[in-house]
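Q: What does the assembled structure look like for these inputs?
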Amino acid sequence: MSGADAVKEDRLWQRHADMAKLGGTPRGGVNRQALSPEDAAARNQLAEWAQKRRFATFADRIGNLFVVRSGKDAGALPVLSGSHMDSQPTGGRFDGMYGVLAAFEALEALEDAGIETKRPVMAVAWTNEEGSRFQPGAMGSAVFAGVYNLDEMFCQKDWKGVLLKDALAETLTAAPAPVRDGAPGFPVDSYVEAHIEQGPRLETERKTIGVVTAIQGSRRYIVTIDGEEAHAGTTPRAARKDAYAAATRIAAAMYAATTDPDDTLRFTIGRVEVSPGSPNTVPGKAVFTIDMRHPDNAVLAAHEATLEAIVAAKAAPCPARIERVTNVPPTDFDPTVIGLVRDKARSLGLSHMDMPSGAGHDAMHIAKLCPTGMIFVPCERGISHNEIENATPADLAAGAKVLVEVLEALANR
Ligand code: HGY
Ligand code: MN
Ligand code: MN
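A:
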């Protein structure tokens, strides 16, 4: 029996349903933000399934959670596969979770098929990929890859001022796993991540498998505007330092400046905070986030200069600053892994197409460590970061079949 033959569509689908209960929302989505009690529950659920299959589990000091299927050569560099279990506040049940469960399904399929591999194969759930509670996102994989410093990440705070270090300690207490000491990260042979596409191309082009070739570059910023609180009834406009009025001027200019004719640049202001938030007090402070993406790093750099110029030109009379929080250059995946994904999709008789990723993934950091690639499956109408995100059991299983075949090939080379 091949690994692909041993993939069980119903088992994989049921695991998604089980996980979707952890942080499930009334609209059928999930709110399982990083290092929340819901995140801890998902970690415990994965560890419980691993234990039943006698797969060892361990965590590293940023909380990345690993499930291990041993290989014949314990000293050989492991092959890794996974994604993230944390979600957006109004997230879907497949974003990230599919990659973790497809990796776990691959371990089970190898086990059920009695297939021994030379290398260990590990499933991994990376900590805080979404970056919606704690910035920066893709944190666990970036610390693992040595891109971000562990101690600096420990000092990050969420929007309510909670320290990441404290939230992580609480999570690892609620979801205990043997923790490997030392700086996160160890040598890896290769990494493959399965994920829903989070866009409409596979569905539109009626393809089951996306052979992912690259991920576009992404940068995140925080704009802070300091005004002056004043009485809404007595303060003339000429005397005001209205932080929100400045924010709207800056935002309007930024939207105009990032409207490109071919609609390739992605510019999003996702979170705005105005304080003190009273209807009859002129806002003394405004803070908003920027998420900007493009396949070409030079375009991102040019637009970054434009954003900085807009803040300088439009903020008066309020002092304002723009700070870059993340800068992840475009990622090109490894030709060998890309070729394996394409060949295995073809030999399984699955329609497939090469495509870049518009969304960011943990693979963008792990690609700095080892040969890396991704497998996409369709999601309904390309909708994601939305509670109505949906996929089909057959497509999820198809992706897992390609994944297990690719992992077996990598683990035996
Ligand atoms: O933002 C992203 O691209 C990812 O879905 N977290
Ligand atoms: Mn994701
Ligand atoms: Mn996401």
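The mean pLDDT is 98.
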